[in-house]
Specification:
Blueprint lengths: L1 E5 L6 H10 L3 E5 L8 E3 L6 H11 L3 E4 L14 H18 L4 E7 L9 E2 L11 H20 L2 E7 L1 E3 L8 H11 L3 E3 L5 E2 L1 E3 H12 L5 E5 L5 E2 H12 L5 E3 L11 E4 L2 H7 L7 H16 L11
Parallel strand pairs: 1-2, 1-4, 2-3, 4-5, 5-7, 6-15, 7-12, 8-11, 9-14, 10-15
Antiparallel strand pairs: 10-13
């Protein structure tokens, strides 16, 4: 089996490659620089000619499509979402045209209608509140209809709240870890909102398992247990010894922010057969270890526990 992974150098993609290799896939990656364990192809996926030439050259049997605009603070409303809708639809069509068999796209919990505390693939409505969520939801709906019409095996992994090694700045856990390890204050909301956090290695492994099986349709990729944001931040503060730097209530929570976002994971556990490797506790340990190595001892805040 030969898999092509788009967005292979991204936060999830870099962890998906070894998970796919461990399942026996010949791994091909779309990226700009070499990646250990994968055959790398440089291509602009927003260029139709390059996109189609790539598929003709690699001729993969499986495709994991992770590439999308995910720049923190920008992607929710970016017009580039429209470019990625178009590119994703053509990617799936071109993949089928060259004989591809199994396509897994990657979506988001932002496809759901905010309000219900727990989101189930079968019963929770999808009426996204953002352009990003609408673009992902629209892409899934069209691809599902197309796949059914041509006999393409299609699944859609909906990611919830990820954290872990390699997360870029501008997101909750990466910014909090960086601040506490470097002795900077971290202003945040009161932290009572509950979110479903999943370690990125588990998310990548779940997507690999989904690709390597027969399950079709939308599948939530989450832990199945939402925790208060304060619980996660307290965990980081405990491990760094810097409770004094966390400023709860310094920022207000937007009125559109739901009180709870939690994934129903019956399909992930029962049909895909996936169980997370990391608990929140071991996941935070792993994340801080990565940040310590990245920052180096000379930059770490005094008083930080090793």
């Amino acid at each position: 089996m030969k898999v092509l992974v788009t967005g292979a150098s991204g936060f999830v993609g870099r962890h998906a490659l070894p998970a796919l290799a461990a399942r026996g896939f010949e791994v091909h990656a779309v990226a700009r620089s070499p990646i250990p364990g994968a055959v790398v192809h440089a291509a602009d996926l927003l260029d139709a000619a390059e996109r189609r030439a790539l598929l003709a050259d690699v001729a993969p049997s499986h495709l994991l499509h992770l590439a999308w605009d995910a720049e923190p603070g920008r992607y929710w409303t970016s017009p580039s979402n429209l470019d990625w809708v178009s590119a994703s639809l053509d990617l799936a069509r071109s993949f089928h045209d060259i004989g591809g068999r199994r396509f897994v796209g990657v979506g988001t919990c932002a496809e759901y209608t905010w309000g219900d505390p727990r989101f189930d693939e079968a019963t929770s409505p999808c009426r996204p509140a953002t352009l990003y969520g609408a673009a992902k939801d629209g892409t899934r709906r069209i691809l599902a209809a197309y796949a059914e019409s041509v006999g393409l095996s299609f699944a859609w992994g909906r990611l919830f709240y990820l954290y872990g090694p390699g997360e870029r700045r501008g997101r909750l856990v990466s910014d909090a870890a960086h601040a506490l390890l470097t002795g900077a204050e971290f202003p945040t909301s009161p932290g009572h909102q509950r979110r479903d956090f999943l370690h990125v290695v588990d998310a990548a492994s779940a997507l690999a398992a989904l690709l390597d099986g027969p399950v079709t349709g939308a599948v939530n990729i989450g832990s199945g247990e939402a925790v208060p944001v304060r619980t996660l931040l307290d965990g980081l503060a405990t491990r760094t010894g810097r409770f004094d730097l966390v400023r709860y209530g310094a920022r207000t929570l937007g009125p559109s922010e739901p009180a709870a976002i939690e994934a129903a994971v019956a399909r992930l556990s029962g049909e895909v057969g996936f169980r997370p490797r990391f608990t929140l506790e071991t996941g935070l340990d792993d994340t801080l270890s990565w940040w310590r190595n990245r920052l180096g001892g000379s930059r770490l805040s005094r008083g930080v526990t090793p």
